Amino acid sequence: MKLDLSGKVALVTGSTRGIGRAIAQSLVDAGAKVAVVGRDLSRAEQVAEQLGEARGFACDISVPADVTMLVQSVEDAFGSCDILVNNAGITKDNLMLRMKDEDWDAVLETNLRSAFIAIRAAQRGMMKRRWGRIINIASVVGLIGNKGQANYAASKAGLIGLSKSVAKELASRNILCNVVAPGFIKTDMTDAMTPEAVAALSAQIPLERFGTPEDIAGLVTFLASDRAAYITGQVFAVDGGMVM
Ligand code: NDP
After folding, report:
1. Å from CA of 18 to ligand 1 middle
2. Could you tell me which of 40, 55, 147 has the C-alpha nearest to residue 88?
């Protein structure tokens, strides 16, 4: 049966490309109105137009006040923010010895603090309406760690702890919070890898391939729907079986 999100409004950070864009498209296809967010307004508006029932918003999510304003703008434009997908994320990889303070801070601010600020802002309306879905996009690296990604792994593990706390705090208001942890997915983030690196990594994946953004979007849309009404505080790896 088709998932039905008609009447719901979704905010998806980092939805101008990659996984976020596929999530936004899938939510629109299920009937939701979607706020497409990136740093550049014309790019976000262009993507929104391509997706259908969507509007573009500009926000640098590493700036706390801007994230709070973003949630307010989406509520003003659409009347509510029922589904929040914290997807935008960056990497600034280096071995610990060479990792600069600013690379640590940038990754934690963009990947983790932004989610805290967005949830804090969106929860008010969700509490009033007694319905909400918060889905945070982490990474299997947040579960198992990775050489050269101490900042990124910490940010993604942090998202998991944040999500479980939010799930416990808001469950009584029918606000559910879950985590999707992708493995290797084909996007701009992984396109920089050499074909040799992709082949070597694929060999460690039981399904023997990188995932697609749509592989992630399907689960996010399910978790946003009423079909997932009894699921909260969970972490779902979507990784071709890499971590089990
Ligand atoms: P991409 O690099 O393809 O896209 C990143 C998105 O985030 C873009 O839409 C970009 O928008 C947005 N973004 C980045 N920084 C900011 C910022 N400061 N403010 C607002 N928007 C921002 O990433 P992916 O699609 O690959 O990844 C999406 C999520 O999935 C990330 O959290 C990532 O960590 C996670 N993930 C990805 C994996 C993969 O293999 N690809 C594996 C595991 C997890 P714009 O440039 O328009 O501002």
Report:
1. 7
2. 40
Check residue 189 and give its pLDDT.
87
Q: Note whether 220 and 85 are within 8 A (CB).
A: yes
> Are 132 and 80 contacting, i.e. CB atoms less than 8 angstroms apart?
no
Sequence ranges of the domains in the chain: 9-185+213-237
Beta-strand runs (E) in the chain? 9-12, 33-38, 54-58, 83-86, 132-137, 175-182, 235-238
SS3 132: strand
Rounded distance, CA 171 to CA 239, Å?
28
Contact between residue 231 and residue 223 where contact means Cβ atoms under 8 Å apart: yes
Dihedral (C-alpha) 183, 184, 185, 188: value to the nearest 10 degrees?
Answer: 130
Which residue in the list 131, 152, 184, 210 is annotated as catalytic?
Answer: 152
| Cα 57 off chain centre by | 16
Q: Catalytic: 230?
A: no
Which tens digits make up the pLDDT trace of 76-131? 999 999 999 999 999 999 999 999 999 999 999 999 999 999 999 999 999 999 99
C-alpha–C-alpha distance, residues 66 and 12, integer Å: 15
Per-residue pLDDT at 166 exceeds 90 = yes
Fold classification of 9-185+213-237 is Rossmann fold (3.40.50)
pTM above 0.70, yes or no: yes
Report the separation in Å between the CA atom of 93 and the middle of ligand 1, taken as the mean of its atom positions.
Answer: 14
Distance between CA 228 and CA 219 in Å, rounded? 10
Residue (of 242, 27, 234) closest to 138 by Cα position: 234
Q: Which residues contact 78 (CB under 8 A, 6 or more apart)?
A: 9, 33, 35, 55
